[in-house]
Amino acid sequence: MLIDLPLIADAFAERFDELQPMFADRDDYRLLVATGSLAKAALVTGQLLADGSIVLIEIEIDPY
Question: Whose CB has fewer CB within 10 Å in the chain, the N or C terminal residue?
Fold first, then answer.
């Protein structure tokens, strides 16, 4: 999964506003479902901070 992180980070940086919101009343948390070279699927949670930076706070990997 580590080799896929740059692509995931780029997706958050380039398409944050297009990603699925995690909470209806919080636009600063978004979800991304991604496939990877070693993982079938991963659910990644990111948060937009007040300074405009995005922090990836959780990665849940599908074990199957």
Answer: C
Task: Using CB atoms within 10 Å of the CB of residue 30, give its burial: 0 to 12 exposed, 13 to 18 middle, 19+ buried.
Answer: buried
pTM for the model? 0.82
Our CA angle for 22, 59, 40, nearest 5°, is 105
Using CA atoms, how far apart are residues 26 and 18, in angstroms rounded to an integer?
14
Token pair of 33 as six digits: 């479902």
Q: How many residues does the chain have?
A: 64
Tell me the pLDDT tens digit for each residue of 12-55: 999 999 999 999 999 999 999 998 887 889 899 999 999 999 99
